[in-house]
Amino acid sequence: MDSKAAEFEIIPLKEWQQKRFPHWYHGQDLFTILVPFDDIEIRLANDSFCMEGNTLIFIGPAKDFTLSGSGTPNGYLIRFTSRFYERSALDRTLINSGLFFDSERLLKTVKSRIKQEEMKMQIIGNIQGYPSRNAAVTSLIVHNFIESVLLQGIWETDFDKELSRGTDSTVQGMANRFSILVHKHYKENCNVKFYADKLHITPRKLTNLCTEVWNKTAKNAIIDIVLKEAMRYIEHTDLSISQISYEMGFSEESNFRHFIKKHSGSNPLQYRERMRTASDAYAH
Length: 284
What we know:
The chain is α+β, with helices and mostly antiparallel strands and 284 residues long. It has helices at residues 82-85, 89-95, 116-126, 135-156, 159-164, 171-185, 192-199, 203-214, 218-236, 241-247, 253-264, 268-283; strands spanning 8-12, 31-36, 40-44, 47-51, 55-59, 65-68, 75-80, 108-111.
């Protein structure tokens, strides 16, 4: 199976660990779908969400989350990259929809119209056997299964009704929308005015609301998000610093190195070595 065709994972929730990544992971943006069969609690961006069982929970890229609750979570985690999923215009529309990039919500959840046992059988019967199948067939089967889940999410979500209600104009709501936009566009644009224009407010107002919510300017909020993503690439991948700088949207490697040094106090290689040494020590 070629590299991009293998960039997916479907595992039981009880096997998921926050810091564990698939062997094919090299810092790519991950799209995540949680299919819990029991009630669970999700912590995301310092917020807690209590979700009922038999729901579909869509979490966009660059969002770290944890699961909590009583007992062992029952259900499945599906995650994949855009390289694996995007094969047509419809595919691009689905993964760039409000399921993963909702400007008002940190995550999207819909009640599954498929009964729990039926969903479980779909996953177990058609998905868990993929390691033993032909690579091309495996890729197609998994792609089609994910597509069916995304289409179900779209079907159960009335985006027109949401749009007619207008956007969340509260300070916290605007800050959340700003954060989501930065995660989506930081590789192309880190200018405060770019995001202010998308939110239909002035750069000054954007900075004021960031200061009120996070006690930092809009510029510093963007820097923090970019820095966090850069550190994620450095710590969790074997990509060279040059490759990471390209993936992050920097035009020059030297600019990327300067950015990391200025805002973290370490050069990229020092940070990678320190984190891996700490990880090895923890493992032993």
